[in-house]
Structure formats: structure tokens, C-alpha cells
Amino acid sequence: MSAANVPKRKEEGMSNLAYRLMSIEFSIQDLFMPGIDKRVDSFGIRESMTVVDDGCGPGRYTIRFARLAGASGKVYAVDIQPLAVETIKSKAAKEHLQNVTPLVAQGYNSGVPDHAADIVCALDMFHGIKKPEDFLTELKRITKPDGTLIIDDGHQAREATKAKILASGCWIISAETPDHLTCTPAP
Description:
CATH class: Alpha Beta
Shape: globular
Radius of gyration: 15 Å
Order of helices and strands: HHEHEHEEHEHEE
Strand order of the largest sheet: 3-2-1-4-5-7-6
CATH topology: Rossmann fold
Oligomer: single chain
Strand content: 15-25%
Distance between the termini: 20 Å
Number of strands: 7
CATH superfamily: Vaccinia Virus protein VP39
Helix content: 25-40%
CATH architecture: 3-Layer(aba) Sandwich
């Protein structure tokens, strides 16, 4: 898909103020509801894996993914909000993490190379995607044939999440927990 044909996502973005408020909210949640590490552990990220944190926001998952993937792994932190990408750059530098590559998505094009990811995580953002088929097609493009998509509902009903995934024809739902769905690329 050429750059001219990449569907736009501007209407899915948020203002810098809204982004900053979301970042503060996440920081408070993480202080008082410390279940995020247990959640991340359930994703199966291991040393040397390539992980994509699509919709990375302020990096509450990105930094954890980078530690789990280790120096021999790689984490792509993708967001349509440039301020989020700047936040990730700052956090990765502060943590001395050399394995994090922040990317500003251009439309639904993440900028991640074809078939690069062992695991793609799309957390607390799928409800805001206006064109789920385009988004899920991009996630399939960047996922290895034996890779995995971890996706949660965000602020929508589970049935809506499942319907969007299945309608894309890109993914097979291979496991379901109350927290998230695990999907594998459709043949």
C-alpha cells in the first residue's frame, strides 16, 4: 500500500492534553492496582523475542516488554500520537534500554517491517479504531506466520471485539481469558 493510499487515523488520535491526562491516570492506576506485571507475564514474552506494542501510549507496557525481551530482543513502540513516541524515547533512555524502537504510525501503517513480530500487543485501544479491518490487516502484516496477537476489548463488549477480529479474516482466535484474546494469523 503506497503512502498515498494509507487510510488516515487522525480522527482516532487525541490531543496533547488528553494524552497527558491519560498518562497521569495510568500512573495512578499502576500505583494503586499493581496487577500490570502479572498481566504482562501472561503474554508469554521471552528473551530474544520481537514484540510490538501497538498503541503504546505512555509506555506502561513497552518498558516491561523491553525488559522481558532482553538485550537480544526488540520492542517496537507504535502510536499515532507523536507525544507518546517522545515519551517512550525518554523512558527508554532513562532505563538504558537499547532494544526499544519508537515509531509514529502513518495512518494504519505502523512502520514495523513485514513479519517482524513474535508477539503484537494491542491493549486498551482497539475500541477506538475506526477501521478495524485495516488495522488488523496491518497487524497481520507485521506478525510472523507463527506469531501471536494479544488484544483486549478496551471499552467495548467482548462480542464486539470478537466480531471485528473474525470479520477481518486475518486472525483466528486461539484462546480467550477474561483479560484478553490471543489470536494467530489466519492462513
